[in-house]
Amino acid sequence: MIPRESKRPSDYEVMDMVLKRGDAVEAARRLSVSPQLVRSWCRSPETEDEYATGKFGPLARLRTIHQHDC
Known about the structure:
This protein is mostly helical. Helix content is 50%, strand content 0%. It has 4 helices and no strands. 14% of the residues are buried. The mean pLDDT is 80.
């Protein structure tokens, strides 16, 4: 048997797995943000190395807060 790679998914990959297309509208309504912003959380964010259309989402922000507190 080939061992599975144990790399954790990126924040935007988790958001993409959790939020289905129709759910973005409902999530946006509950969070008081635009559906477009919620959808952008499901795409790779822009870095200095590459251009992408995503935005850093709530999971990335929580990770940043947690790293600063530890």
